[in-house]
Write a structure and sequence with these properties.
The structure is a single chain. This protein is an all-alpha fold. 78% of the residues lie in helices and 0% in strands.
Length: 443
């Protein structure tokens, strides 16, 4: 590896990977600390869901303006400043005396880490070769998702040692350190696109793009649901439905977190190699969505298998951002990269908020028995989420289904046409792959 690559890794890749690590840790830590919070503050299922999901709500709400700021001022400045706000939120959370303070603190944390992934993706687009973006994104998301690993058994050990308030003191200092590392360590970008290229590009260029409109519902429905389940509702399911004790629960959450971490790297490598062989990333993300829905159905229907298997599949889907953001990098130029990623991130986190809070509302319709909600409550809530994902997958596959139906129609009508006429009938395909990234024609 050349000296240039080492400089990029140390000065660009690692600071943003550290920021994304903190973002992932803050996102998923509620699964570990929610029992302590529920006990100390008397939180029911609806309040627990709201407290966890307000992070996603605020996160989603600021994606568009943050995308604009990243494109205008660069990832170093935006990330460094916002992480200081996240540190303030962590301080308030650790000293909270009531639910309202917890809610405000959680919202501040969501705002403070809202640029973490997009800033890293923007930096990758600026500093790394386009053909390596999927692989570098995979490595960044793999390292960042170690935050989910830290939020399981390691967090449980820390909670036994210093409690949840002491944990947030540690997170405050860690967040300030990463903010300083980013602001003072990352170099300024020297890459600027020509004004003639970017002056015509606006958010409407993203939202009116047919490729984006096909990708966003599927990516949001599946990835957002995966985040919502892993960061909160996996733990209640494993406790209430599977009957796991605290030790077994933390062990399974730890393995699931490892799955999303290594899944990110695996998906990045797979996308990189498939692209070299001419296979589009769209096919890979559609296949992942199918596996994700099948895994949820296995949980809902209580298929006789170790629940760890479908839960790991659910976790790995959360790493499919590797694929989504690589596709966005293909669809839009560098000058629009952060806004396009922000538009997709808005869909991701909006979906995560809706699923996480919605599951809490649905499950809360059943009365708990001995502190546990019935199996039917979880099955009904998870089933609604899976239905939306299946609809999004069908929407994503419309171009492929349309082309397939035309070929089938041609194969069925050709014998009749040849019998009625001596002229040879030829059907010329009008569409190529399902969602070709650089295709300009309308689907």
């Amino acid at each position: 590896m050349s000296r240039k690559w080492w400089r990029l890794i140390l000065a660009v890749f690692l600071p943003f990977a550290a920021g994304y690590y903190l973002s992932f840790l803050f996102r998923t830590i509620n699964a570990s600390i929610s029992p302590a919070l529920a006990s100390e503050f008397g939180l029911d299922a609806a309040k627990t869901g709201l407290l966890a999901s307000v992070y996603f709500l605020v996160f989603a709400g600021v994606q568009i303006p943050i995308g604009v700021l990243l494109d205008r001022y660069g990832p170093r400045r935006v990330q460094g400043v916002l992480l200081v706000m996240a540190a303030g939120g962590a301080t308030l959370f650790g000293t909270a005396t009531g639910f309202s303070e917890l809610l405000v603190a959680r919202a501040m944390i969501g705002l403070g880490v809202a640029a973490s992934l997009m800033a890293g993706l923007k930096a990758v687009v600026i500093w790394f070769p386009r053909e390596r973006i999927a692989l570098v994104n995979g490595c960044m998301i793999m390292l960042g998702s170690l935050g989910a690993v830290t939020a399981t058994a390691p967090t449980d050990w820390v909670l036994d040692w210093i409690g949840w308030r002491g944990l947030f003191e540690v997170l405050t200092f860690a967040t300030i350190a990463v903010a300083a590392f980013t602001y003072f360590g990352v170099p300024e970008s020297s890459s600027n696109e020509a004004a003639s290229t970017t002056s015509r590009l606006t958010l409407w260029s993203v939202y009116s793009d047919a490729r984006f409109l096909r990708l966003a519902p599927l990516s949001a429905a599946c990835i957002g649901s995966s985040w919502a389940l892993q960061s909160l509702w996996a733990a209640p399911w494993l406790t209430d439905v599977e009957g796991l004790d605290r030790h077994s629960l933390m062990t399974q959450l730890f393995i699931m977190a490892l799955a999303i971490s290594f899944g990110a790297l695996l998906l990045g490598v797979m996308a990189d190699r498939l692209r070299r062989r001419g296979t589009t990333t769209e096919i890979l993300i559609a296949g992942m969505a199918g596996v994700f829905i099948a895994a949820e159905l296995a949980l809902i229907l209580r298929v006789p298998m170790p629940s760890l298997l479908p839960w790991c599949a659910v976790s790995v889907m959360g790493a499919a951002t590797v694929l989504s953001y690589a596709m966005i990098a293909d669809y839009f130029p560098q000058g629009l990269a952060a806004r396009a990623n922000g538009a997709l991130n808005l869909a991701h986190f909006g979906s995560a908020f809706a699923v996480q809070y919605g599951i809490g509302l649905v499950v809360g319709q059943w009365a708990p028995q001995d502190g546990h909600y019935p199996v039917m409550a979880y099955q009904f809530a998870f089933g609604l989420s899976a239905a939306f994902q299946a609809a999004a997958l069908l929407w994503f596959a419309v171009p492929w289904l349309r082309t397939l139906s035309r070929h089938l129609y041609a194969s069925l009508t050709r014998p009749f046409a040849e019998r009625d006429s001596q002229a040879e009938f030829v059907m010329v395909p009008v569409e190529g792959s399902i969602l070709e990234a650089r295709e300009a024609v309308e689907w």
